[in-house]
Amino acid sequence: MQDIAAKISDSELEVLEVLWEAEEALPIAPIRKRLEERRGWDSSTIKTLLRRLCEKGAVEARRRESFYYRPVLNREDYQRWSTRSLIQRVYRGSAKDLVASLVRGDQLTDQDLDELRALLDREGSHG
């Protein structure tokens, strides 16, 4: 899945977001409606993006009365790949530097920090 995630463009990611939010296979009409509302894209752009996603193996199209599209690449796998890629490219492989940047940049609320502390305590007790 990492190979697939690496090939996803920003526009294709927006199509995937619609499919992930739906949590079920969708025909093109509701996909088109959501992307026209969000992005103002025309039908041919949306069809092109869906075709590309299918060619890359990120989306599957199954024919019923019309084509129904569902993501093969799940959100969690894409997020994991994106995070690793960001850490490698921007933080020279240091996840600690990423977290420090978030803390110093006031990107995390007190509640976020409390939840992270609890997660670290929980995960640390397994090691």
Automatic annotation (TrEMBL):
Query: Which Gene3D superfamilies does the entry link to?
Result: Penicillinase repressor domain (1.10.4040.10), Winged helix-like DNA-binding domain superfamily/Winged helix DNA-binding domain (1.10.10.10)
GO BP terms, alphabetized? negative regulation of DNA-templated transcription
Residues passing through the membrane, by range: none
The domain of life for this entry's organism is Bacteria
Q: Which residues form the signal peptide?
A: none
Q: Reply yes or no: does the keyword DNA-binding apply.
A: yes
- Which Pfam families does its entry note? Penicillinase_R
> Would I find Kinase among this entry's keywords?
no
Q: Which InterPro entries match?
A: BlaI_family (IPR005650), WH-like_DNA-bd_sf (IPR036388), WH_DNA-bd_sf (IPR036390)
- What GO terms are given for molecular function? DNA binding
Which terms are listed as keywords in the entry?
Answer: DNA-binding, Transcription, Transcription regulation
Family according to the record: Belongs to the BlaI transcriptional regulatory family.
What protein is this chain from?
BlaI/MecI/CopY family transcriptional regulator
Tell me which species this is from: Flintibacter hominis
Organism phylogeny: Bacteria, Bacillati, Bacillota, Clostridia, Eubacteriales
